[in-house]
Automatic annotation (TrEMBL):
<dbReference type="GO" id="GO:0005886">
    <property type="term" value="C:plasma membrane"/>
</dbReference>
<feature type="transmembrane region" description="Helical">
    <location>
        <begin position="149"/>
        <end position="172"/>
    </location>
</feature>
<dbReference type="InterPro" id="IPR051322">
    <property type="entry name" value="AA_ABC_Transporter_Permease"/>
</dbReference>
<feature type="transmembrane region" description="Helical">
    <location>
        <begin position="86"/>
        <end position="109"/>
    </location>
</feature>
<keyword id="KW-0813">Transport</keyword>
<dbReference type="InterPro" id="IPR000515">
    <property type="entry name" value="MetI-like"/>
</dbReference>
<comment type="similarity">
    <text>Belongs to the binding-protein-dependent transport system permease family. CysTW subfamily.</text>
</comment>
<dbReference type="InterPro" id="IPR035906">
    <property type="entry name" value="MetI-like_sf"/>
</dbReference>
<keyword id="KW-1003">Cell membrane</keyword>
<feature type="transmembrane region" description="Helical">
    <location>
        <begin position="55"/>
        <end position="80"/>
    </location>
</feature>
<feature type="transmembrane region" description="Helical">
    <location>
        <begin position="192"/>
        <end position="211"/>
    </location>
</feature>
<dbReference type="Pfam" id="PF00528">
    <property type="entry name" value="BPD_transp_1"/>
</dbReference>
<keyword id="KW-1133">Transmembrane helix</keyword>
<keyword id="KW-0472">Membrane</keyword>
<protein>
    <recommendedName>
        <fullName>ABC transmembrane type-1 domain-containing protein</fullName>
    </recommendedName>
</protein>
<keyword id="KW-0812">Transmembrane</keyword>
<feature type="transmembrane region" description="Helical">
    <location>
        <begin position="20"/>
        <end position="43"/>
    </location>
</feature>
Length: 221
């Protein structure tokens, strides 16, 4: 057994897993906030909705569509100058965060918009008829009604972020992606690559388990 995993430095593997969890957690939190805002704006400014505004809806929709369509590895390269100005470096776990957030937030924003569209318009109209303010409708009607779908959406997005961190690792972001590429692939240590992959899979399974559990608890249907 020891011969099969002879090239693995477990301290290095643990550190890489921690970096992957750090990137995923921070990016997921920022993605949730930014994606929720963008998704709400897309929904609210659409035709026949509370803040109907074609110009704003078009601009936000274009932003979301553009950044959602760019392959992540290309997005990292495009954002290198911005990342260097913002953080002073393009290497390390923190340097990957701008690309991770900008890559994932538009994806989640569309999920938020779709979730909000599924809400019965009668519920919204009833709230308006009772004189509820727009902020009250958002906080007391839209978000609570769409919450199970929002949680499912951020679960899917977070799992995608785990994959993004692995891709970012290839260009020096750290984490399991960097370990699998530099210590595994480039040095021909297949055991390192396999164990790093297993660690990624375990992170994904854990996220899915937590997401499913939370969704089940809050879904009142």
């Amino acid at each position: 057994m020891d011969k099969l995993i002879a090239n693995i430095d477990w301290n290095q593997m643990l550190e890489a897993t921690g970096e992957t969890l750090y990137m995923t957690a921070i990016a997921a939190l920022a993605t949730f906030v930014l994606g929720l805002i963008l998704g709400l704006l897309l929904f609210m400014t659409a035709k026949d909705n509370l803040w109907e505004n074609k110009a704003i809806n078009t601009v936000i929709g274009a932003f979301v569509n553009i950044f959602r369509s760019i392959p992540f590895i290309i997005l990292i390269i495009l954002l290198i100058p911005f990342t260097k100005i913002l953080l002073g470096t393009i290497l390390g776990a923190s340097a990957a965060l701008p690309a991770l957030i900008i890559g994932a937030a538009p994806f989640y924003a569309r999920m938020v918009e779709i979730a909000l569209r599924e809400i019965d318009k009668g519920v919204i109209e009833a709230s308006k008829a009772m004189g509820a303010k727009t902020s009250t409708i958002i906080l007391k009607v839209l978000i609570p009604e769409a919450l199970p779908a929002l949680v499912s959406g951020i679960t899917v997005t977070t799992i995608a972020l785990v994959g993004y961190t692995a891709m970012a690792g290839v260009v020096g972001a750290g984490g399991l992606g960097t370990l699998a590429y530099l210590e595994g692939f480039q040095r021909g240590n297949n055991d390192v690559t396999i164990v790093a992959t297993i660690c990624v899979l375990l992170v994904v399974f854990l996220i899915q388990l937590i997401g499913d559990s939370v969704t089940t608890r809050i879904d009142k249907r």
